[in-house]
From TrEMBL:
GO terms for biological process: cell surface receptor signaling pathway. InterPro entries: Adaptor_Cbl_N_dom_sf, MLKL-like_MCAfunc, MLKL_N. Residues 46-148 form the Mixed lineage kinase domain. This is Mixed lineage kinase domain-containing protein. Pfam families: MLKL_N (PF22215).
Amino acid sequence: MPLRYVRSKLTAVNALSVAVATTAITKELADMAQFPPAKAAASLLLVIFQTIQNVQTNRNDCYRLARRCLSLLVDMRDQMDGRWEDAPESLLRNFAKFEQTLEGIRNFMTREADNKWRTRLIRKSTIEEALAEFNLKLDDAARTFQISTLINIQLALGGLSQSSSLHVTVGTEVSDLIDLTSSPVSIAPSMSFSSVEELTDDPEDGLYQRSRSDEFVLVSESVQADIAQSISQAVPAASSDPELELLDHRGFRRYGQSDVRLKGKFRRGTGWWASSARGRVEGKNVLVRTYEGPAGEVAKYRDTLDAALYVGRQLNLSETKTQDYVENTTYVIDDEGKVIMGLPPPNIANWVSWRNFGLAHSIRDIYMRILPNRGLADQPHELSNNKSIELQQKMSHLAVLARALLPDDANTIEVSARLNEIVDAWEDEENENNAVSLQQIRLAALSSKNHVKMWRERTVPAFKYQIGDLGYIPTGKDFSSFCVLQNVVADGLVAFELVQNATGWQGCWDRGFRQNQDLQAFPASFNAYGWAIVVPPGTEQDVQVIHDNCLASPTDGWRFLLDHGRSLAASHNVKPEQLILVTRVGTDQQFKIHDFRQMPFMHPPNSHQNIHQHHHPAFGMHNRPGFGHQQYGHQPHMHNSFMAQQLQPLIFYLFTSPDEANAPYWSEMPMYQPLPKGGQRPDLRGRCVPSIGW
């Protein structure tokens, strides 16, 4: 089964809630735009919220990031209202840096919203990393304001040399303060918030403005140590652990036990997935496997669009080595319909292998193994199967299309181009159920000109159906109950380009071995074909002749059903998927001819040679020459010319035709004459007996 790309769409309920929230935020930003110091930042943030409406993937993450920006900007406005004239230059510089961060977020979201959904899906991991980086920048901005405030307070109270604990009242609500530092990076452990009672009721406090809610005290025991620790935690790249840097470089992500919430065991409990379970990490459904190795090597591989090429690119593998990974990987499908790869152990890097096929064949074989019956589908459905007919038909058609889109003799670039056609066509259309339909997959296969599959029925009476017959099979019946509704060619609905083919074989048994050879037909009058058959004496020759009349391009039949199948089904009161169009008809005929002539018994040459004795003949006696020594020397074996001519191979002519009116027959002459209706077939000379079969 090819990979399923899922694009979440905004439902009516979510659209209403987002619209209400966006309206309220827009009003708040419009009011803030009247505040001159925050006018530029408010304008940037308004553009960010408007851009989020065009984002499909990662919309919640973008919305959460914008809410954090708004919360931080509102706190600045509340705290600095009426105090901008006396604000220190360091605080103004920090506010300018915050505006630069907003401008970077605005540019990033605008650029990603203009890209196609397929491009954003391919760059999914890059977008997630960018969102996490912007969260870190907001944390840095929040800490910068806090640190700047602490430094100014300490300078006002006596300088940096004071080492006693400093109690500072921060007048902000609980929700705002928590949302301000709600990124994945934690606050320094030495900085803690504790609830205290109101310290003073002086309304003329020139440093801080209080709120009616509970207040918090930020306790700093060592400002410089806290700053260093906060920076170390905020910038993971600054870590000196080389193993962690290697994992980040290779695309791995490290999770702790507290980050994962298990939901239950995985439904497949064998092989590599025996110790796997379903879980949830950062709001995403994942597969969790219990790891029993060293704690420093625990890692999770990120999901990608093309896992095979991603592994080869990340690990710098050649195509042959990538095939080693692909062919020795275990695959499962999770609850969301994604194909999950369980990579083989690292010692596979030491393997040496040789193949006569490329990576495209290995990838196609993976999908064929996932499909039922390894993707082999001779018929659309089988009555003996316990599954529903509709499900069997979908799986059979999907298997045929998978083989057409993933050929084993093409390279990965051609395969990727064909799959991109499906994704692009799906992205351009409005799909309600967010799933790729069989029609879209079939259109992509038809465009690739590799979809030549036509369903075949082996046992069909000759001359019963014609090309263009449109019908269906009643529920619970087989093809013997096929009901013809109309002939679309005879009715003038379509004109197909047809091709006639005639093939034949001749065979016989010789000393316990079967010998076959192809026959070459020569055209005759009245749409007939002639076959020259050589019959050696004493042999029985079998002849098989196949006539077929079919569409020059099988894609014409598929396209006709895709374009007109729905309307034709409605006119005959049947389902569109029940329609069957006859695109190939023909005959498979068997013939025999037996030559009853036998080879006569003959002495081997020189079996009675004369023994010449050296003696003098008697006087008057005639000396007769020995046997085989006539006047003109030795005579060859089978010197009887009549017998030699009688045992030569005979040549007969078999005439066949794809038309029912022209009956087949054997003849000694290469000229074809149609047999009159009810007329006798000509007899053959000698002791040769022909037979006519179907």
